Structure formats: structure tokens, C-alpha cells
Amino acid sequence: MRALTVQPGHADSARVEDVPEPPESDGPVLVRTLAIGVCGTDLEIVAGKYGWAPPGRDRLVLGHESLGRVLEAPADSGLAPGDLVAGIVRRPDPVPCPNCAAGEWDMCRNGKYTERGIKELDGYCSERYRIRPEFAVKVASRLGHLGVLIEPASVVAKAWEHVERIGRRAVWRPRRVLVTGAGPIGLLAALLGRQRGLEVHVLDRVTEGPKPQLVRDLGAEYHTGSVGELAAAADVVVECTGVGQLVFDIVSRTPPGCVTCLTGISSGGRPIPADFGVLNKTMVLENDVVFGSVNANRRHYEQAAAALARADPAWLARVVNRRVPLDRWRDALVRQKDDLKPVISLAAE
Ligand code: BGC
Q1: Residue whose CA is at the smallest distance from ligand 1 atom 12
Q2: What is the Å distance from ligand 1's center to 122 Cα?
Q3: For residue 169, how far is the Cα from the chain centroid?
Q4: How far apart, in whole angstroms, are the C-alpha atoms of residue 67 and residue 85?
């Protein structure tokens, strides 16, 4: 079967090649891959800056945002041939740490977790893959190809769940949310904020292209310019850019008790002069919380599947803005103007 593979650590090593059928040891559920979403992490892996091949191998099958159709599943697996599924990215560490032992592998404590398509496990960008049923999440059939958004939505569902858990440390009546960055993660964070009935403000740099209207069509407000006043009025901030200066400006300006969730992975290398003593003082005196959030466990995938099933499919279809066949995979891995979520199609739904 064909797969998109890459040699981690080596720039521009990606290619489509023939690989063996997925081994039975990967699990009893056999899935035909329909689509693979591309995100910043994939671009980093293809640029040789991130990613790890499975032990003893040079190459890794790429792809962690997946949508597939079940071909074979055991009778007691809760899955049946024809079901649409998304594959979970992370697998618990083998020790396992207390979180991985409890199915909270997104909170792995020892870093020995693995991730399909990213860290030591083949990804989903092959014509077929195998999986254990506990790592495959059912997608409502009415979502069709839009189910490819389940993985990025799971990352955002986890971020929101943790914001709310932290918020409940005291009286928690959030009203206003600031989302920074209107890429797919920011847009999905805004969607989940609106689904919670909150007033959502989204800040991005661009004034043109699809982002402003996508935000407005959620019933949220789109902003460009400086973050100061927006952060000062927020009860919750979901930061989705990873831009160091922006993060610093946000945490310096948020009001007392604000919960700020960082989801963007910074490229680093741009030192910013900052007075951490002043920042510490404000954070202490205001009971501020700033926390990082990565990955998602099964519960978050289920929350994501439910949130997407409630969303307007026409809106989601504007987020999945490009679909290219596997043969033209290169097109999907080069960012184009106005790109949101390019997707590689492996088979028709
Ligand atoms: C994925 C996460 C993963 C993270 C770090 C992100 O792009 O969505 O599932 O944990 O990269 O590898």
C-alpha cells in the first residue's frame, strides 16, 4: 500500500512510497484512511525539526489528524465496518506513569509516551492502518470529510476542559474569552467558546482572507491590532499563536483571576527583554493562572466529536479549505495564502 513517509531530522525527505500492509500487532480494527489533515507539527517534521522514527527504523509514516472508514472490526469492539473513525494520536508510556495508567496520556509525566505520525509510531497517512478499538473514536456520519477536524478539535476540547477545571477553584462565572490567533486551533477554540454561550473575541494579524468572516459567522468579534485592552477585559484567554512577545503582553495585562491557556508551540530563538519580578508580583496579587496544554485523551476526542456534530457543517467546510490527492501531497505541505486546514485525500468517502 502507499504511504507518505519522512525521515525525521532530515529536511525535505518526505515521499510517497510502498510500505507493507499494517501489522496485525497494531490492533484488530482495520481502517481505510480517507483523509489526513496537515498542521504546523507536520510542517516541522517535514522540515527535519521535529519527529522521531520508530525504534530501529529511519522512516516514519506521517499523519496524526486522521479520518478513516472501518473495514474490519471485532464484534465486541463497539465499531462496525462502515463506521467513520478518527485515530487517537498518543499512546501511554510503558512504565506507565500515574496519568498514563489512568488513560490521561495527554498528561504523561515521564515523556516516554509515543505519538502516531510524530513520535516513534507510524502515523495514519497510509492507505490502510490498524488500531486497537480504544484508540479509535467514532465520528458522526453526517460530518463526512469534516471529521478530519476531530484531532485539532480534541486539542481545543482539552484546553477548554482544563480552563473550566481550573476556573472552578473559586466562584466561576466567565463571560468574555479572548482567543489569539485565528488559525484552525484558534477558530475551533472560538467555536467551543461560543458553544458555551460566552462572548468571544478573536485577535489575529490579517485583515483580509477568510478569517474575519469565519469569526463573525460564529457570532464572535474579530480584532487586529494590539492585545492590551482585549486581554485586560478577558476572563479566559486561549493563546493559539505561540508568539513569545504576545504571550508576555497577555499575561502582563489579564485581570485578576483570569485563566490563560497556552496552546501554541513557539519556535523560540527570539529573546524578549522582560521583568519577571513584576510579572510574578502581578500574578500572585491577582491569583492569575497561566498554563500550557498539549494533546488530548479519549474523553477529549469524544467531546470534540460531539462539538463538531453540533457545529454548522457549512462553517466547518470553510475551515477545511483545500483537499489534495495523495499524489499531490507536496501541495498540502506548502502553506498557501489564506490556508486554514489543508487535507490530503487518500480515498473518497
Ligand atoms: C498534536 C498533538 C501532539 C503535539 C506534540 C500536535 O500537533 O496535535 O497531539 O501531542 O503536536 O507532538
Answers
A1: 118
A2: 14
A3: 26
A4: 6
Residue identifier of the C-alpha nearest atom 3 of ligand 1: 295
Distance of alpha carbon 179 from alpha carbon 253, whole angstroms: 14
**pLDDT for residue 267:** 76
pLDDT along the chain (349 residues), means of 10: 98 97 97 98 96 98 98 97 98 98 98 98 98 98 97 98 98 98 98 98 98 98 98 98 96 97 86 90 97 98 98 98 96 94 94
pTM: 0.97
Given a contact cutoff of 8 angstroms between Cβ atoms, the answer to whether 37 and 341 are in contact is: yes
Probe residue for ligand 1, chosen from 155, 263, 297 as the CB with the greatest number of ligand atoms within 8 Å: 155
**Which of 80, 32, 9, 1 minimizes the C-alpha distance to 347?**
32
CB 337 within 8 A of CB 327: no
d(CA 3, CA 126): 4
Contacts of residue 123, Cβ cutoff 8 Å, sequence gap at least 6: 36, 60, 61, 62, 63, 64, 66, 116, 117
Distance 277 CA to ligand 1 centre (A): 32
* Confidence (pLDDT) at 272: 84
Helical (H) or strand (E) element with 315:
helix 313-319
pLDDT, residue 342, reads: 98
Residue with the smallest CA separation from ligand 1 atom 11 is 41
CA of 294 to the centre of ligand 1 (A): 6
Residues ≥6 apart with Cβ < 8 Å to 183: 240, 340
Alpha-carbon dihedral 24, 27, 31, 36, rounded to 10 degrees: -110
Ligand 1 lined by 279 (C-beta under 6 Å): no
Q: Are 305 and 139 in contact (CB under 8 A)?
A: yes
DSSP character at residue 55: T
Instruction: Enumerate the H helices of 200-297 as residue ranges.
Output: 211-217, 228-232, 244-253, 276-285
Task: Please measure the distance between the N-terminal and C-terminal CA atoms of the chain and give it in whole angstroms.
Answer: 18
User: Rounded to whole angstroms, how far apart are CA atoms 68 and 45?
Assistant: 22
